[in-house]
């Protein structure tokens, strides 16, 4: 059976409607509940706070948020992650989140409230990171 890659699918159809796997984009996207639409990336550079679908070699696809735009690459992090990922280049990014559906409501990536959430969520990253580390330590103590 011939498997189509996300790149091939986006090239053919221009957009991908999918549901996420995992918890890295909580609280924005919940596995098994929310559906998102990714548009094929254009030649244009992505913006800070965009959520992008990118390829992590060899064959892993990740949907995370851009937290910093640098001259030649991006710094990216999942909303529910502690570690930043450096060196993601334009050629690694295959799509940009356009919207997601939660409880039957479409939320556009250009929606004012959503953009506000993105800015605030990234601004409090240092605090969230400390809280996640404390939570992980307590979780480890319970075992």
Walk me through the structure.
- This protein has 143 residues and is α+β, with helices and mostly antiparallel strands.
- The chain has a single domain (6-142), classed as Umud Fragment, subunit A.
- The longest helix is centred in the last third of the chain and has 18 residues, at 125-142.
- It contains three helices and eight strands, in the order αββββββββαα.
- Strand 5 and strand 6 form a beta hairpin.
- The chain has helices at 6-13, 112-123, 125-142; strands at 15-19, 35-40, 51-56, 60-69, 74-77, 85-88, 93-102, 105-108.
Key attributes of the depicted protein:
single chain; 143 residues; alpha+beta; Umud Fragment, subunit A; 8-stranded antiparallel β-sheet; 3 helices; globular
For the record, the CATH architecture stands as Ribbon
Number of strands: 8
Indicate the percent of residues in helices.
Answer: 25-40%
Secondary-structure element sequence? HEEEEEEEEHH
- CATH homologous superfamily (4th level) name: Umud Fragment, subunit A
Sheet/helix structural class: alpha+beta
Stated plainly, the CATH topology is called: Umud Fragment, subunit A
Taking pLDDT < 50 over at least 5 consecutive residues as the criterion, the unreliable ranges are none
Total separate domains: 1
Write down the CATH class. Mainly Beta
The percent range for strand residues is 25-35%
């Amino acid at each position: 059976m011939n498997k189509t890659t996300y790149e091939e699918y986006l090239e053919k159809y221009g957009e991908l409607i999918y549901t996420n796997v995992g918890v890295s984009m909580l609280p924005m996207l919940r596995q098994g509940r929310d559906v998102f639409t990714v548009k094929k990336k254009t030649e244009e550079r992505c913006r800070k706070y965009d959520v992008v679908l990118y390829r992590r070699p060899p064959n892993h696809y990740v949907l995370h948020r851009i937290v910093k735009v640098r001259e030649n690459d991006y710094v990216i992090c999942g909303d529910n992650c502690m570690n930043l990922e450096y060196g993601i280049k334009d050629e690694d990014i295959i799509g940009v989140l356009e919207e997601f559906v939660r409880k039957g409501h479409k939320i556009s990536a250009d929606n004012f409230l959503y953009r506000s959430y993105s800015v605030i969520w990234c601004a409090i990253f240092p605090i969230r990171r400390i809280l996640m580390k404390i939570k992980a330590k307590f979780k480890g103590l319970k075992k």
